[in-house]
Amino acid sequence: MSSREVVILNVGGVRFVTRASTLQQFPESRLARMVNDDDREFKLVNGEFFVDRDGALFSYIMDFLRTLQVSLPTDFSDYERLQREAEFYGLYPLANLLSQEHLLKPRLEILEVRFSLQEMQAFFRIFGSCSTTIEVLAEQITVFTGQQSGQGWSSPFPSQKPLVPLPLERPSHHDLVFLCGTEYSAGDQFVPRYVSIKPDKRKLINGTNVLGLLLDTLLRDGFRLISTRTVASEEKVECYTFERMKRAAGLAIMANQTPGSSGAAQARRSQVQKWK
């Protein structure tokens, strides 16, 4: 068996096909010994190893062996059962990590959008509990400006310079500020500010339209609107609060860890997917 490249396992009625080298990632594990015919509990029936364990949980173990990372769904809750399965297979680094649920459980993320409409300008401030989310939004949102001259909006043929992008204001790692609309400058000129939010290609100048596009973008990205309120009625500041479950960062484990080593001590954090 040690020279066979493809191994078929039947775990509790669920069939898995993998490489022998995948099962040998941790040489001291029972799966590695099974491939080398050193564990008699695993029976070879019609060319398949039969294992009387939970097949659904074994899919997470296979994912771990293939990637050397622990990355569980946001709705996963069977940490203790999966830990017992890891211990059964002799995958102690994985079992040690699963015993520390706080490293793997998803966390609640809060995002707040403040919107104020004043005369011909709209002001936006976005605050988030996760700085990574704010960084991603800062890459999606672009403000363009250009100076238009003539007789204001009434000019039938106004001359307009090419639009140029402006950097967003970042008061801190957890928030960003921008505005759109128009403002008058010296010399009877007005300066328009347009907002574009990727992947939408439009450049919008109306604040209400920008707000609608921003809220739609957040909803598509997995956020859920939980409250809408007016913060300051005199200034007409509206506040929209969102939440979503943020997937925990993946934890990578070195394959040469020994059975008695601490998974938490030797594991190194690596973000598998940007806040999804």
Detailed description of the structure:
The chain has 276 residues and is α+β, with helices and mostly antiparallel strands. The protein has 8 helices and 18 strands. Strands 6, 7, 8, 11, 12, 13, 14, 15 and 16 form a 9-stranded antiparallel sheet that branches. Strands 2-1-4-3 form a 4-stranded mixed sheet. Strand 13 (175-185) and strand 14 (189-197) form a beta hairpin. Helix 3 (55-67) packs across helix 4 (79-88) and helix 4 (79-88) packs antiparallel against helix 5 (92-98). The longest helix is centred in the last third of the chain and has 14 residues, at 207-220. It starts with 5 loop residues before the first strand and ends in a 6-residue tail after the last strand. Residues 150-159 and 257-276 have low confidence and may be disordered.
Low-confidence stretches: 150-159, 257-276
User: What is the β-strand count?
Assistant: 18
Structural class: alpha+beta
Biggest β-sheet strands, sense, barrel: 9 strands, antiparallel
The SSE string, one letter per element, is EEHHEEHEHHEEHEEEEEEEHEEEHE
- Beta-strand percentage? 35-45%
Question: What's the overall geometry?
Answer: elongated
Cα-based radius of gyration, to the nearest Å? 28 Å
What is the number of helical segments per DSSP (H or I, 4+ residues)?
Answer: 8
Average the pLDDT over all residues and give the rounded result: 82
- End-to-end CA span: 40 Å
**Helix share of residues?**
10-25%
